[in-house]
Amino acid sequence: MIKLPELLAPAGTLDAFKTAILYGADAIYAGLPGFSMRARAKITTEEVKQGIELAHAAGKKVYLAFNLFAHDRDFVNMPRVSEVINYLKPDALIIADPGVLMWVRENHPDMPIHISTQANICSALSVKFWQNAGAKLCVLAREVSHEEFKNIRKQCPDMKLEIFVHGAMCMSYSGRCLLSNFITGRPANRGACAQLCRWKYDVILRECESGIEMPIEEDERGAYIMNSKDLCLMPRLREVIEAEPDSLKIEGRNRSEYYVGSVIHAYRAAIDAYAKDPENFDPAPFMKELERLETRGYTTAFFDGNLGSDAHNYETTRSTSEYHAAGVITNVDEKTITLELRNEIKQGDEITFILPCTTDCVSVALPKIINAKNGEELPKMSAGQHNSLLIPREWLGCVMQDKFVPYVLAYKHK
Fold first, then answer.
1. pLDDT grade, residue 221 (50/70/90)?
2. Cα–Cα distance list, 236 to 81, 240, 293, 303, 337 (Å)
3. 392 lies in which domain range?
4. Considering 41, 200, 242, 336, which has the largest number of Cβ atoms within 10 A of its Cβ?
5. pTM metric for this prediction
């Protein structure tokens, strides 16, 4: 019997922690504030502490990303980092820098170490190197193909392996990009990437002697020359699971709770469906849920080897989805549900709730827009400033009302 992999969710906010737990993540990873690849994520040390306590109470694990490439000046602050690690009590640290690994082993010898994708692990020998250095798990580079993964798995049977299955791709090698730092002074490897690969460019050739400029004109594809589509291995999930990775990682610590919940919900349901009936597993129903998300289009990236031309979106960085987040439930009582808005809602709009622990959804057309603050009826309500509307339970009938708890997500057609 094949052992099912852990489903690992990102959390860049406390709300994302709560959402990931509710929608079925087995483990959650967050940044050690100020010392990870997502240093700009809006989460404080106290919020990480709350998230870890909530996760542990639910039987989930939490891994802290500590995957900066450290300069000598960074080690001056390590005594403070030690205090934070001892205070937070994570289940593992995610590390990329050999120097940081040595420091962790010396100062936190009992702390499990996971090696970040930033270490560019593409071979069995690299896995064994980090295993000999004391690591318990390696996150393989996104550039590793499925066949390469199977070979690594065969050669490293006693080492835990983790792979990315969903999320943004980087135009540089495993995210080790200098473009942002070079042009804007914002270092990608310190969580401050300006995502210059998503910008629209004009390409100009210059003849050095005459100084004549010859622009390369845009064609019907546009000029988004470095804009990768998003990774999605849902269509190949059977092959992924049967290759026996230990952990499936979702990218997205800077994403909303709507994104985190929706992706985790889809992969949780898909993994459970595979476990129930492997022979008849069909990823198509779960792919439909992922297609509702705001995305640049999907690609299986390096799964089959080298990238093809379909791995990039040359037209735009805008979402290809026809849907967007409507809001998230923040309060439930006997008579009403409070929905905090993420986009404008108008009278007559139909919104759909993504319910945890089931693939069923509940939709409702809103005959009225009722302001949660004062009960005033409005023709529409915009998002922002915690604007919320009330939805009387009677509008929903009696369908699955017990599933409506805080952090249930809703979406609507654009």
1. very low
2. 40, 6, 19, 9, 38
3. 323-413
4. 41
5. 0.85
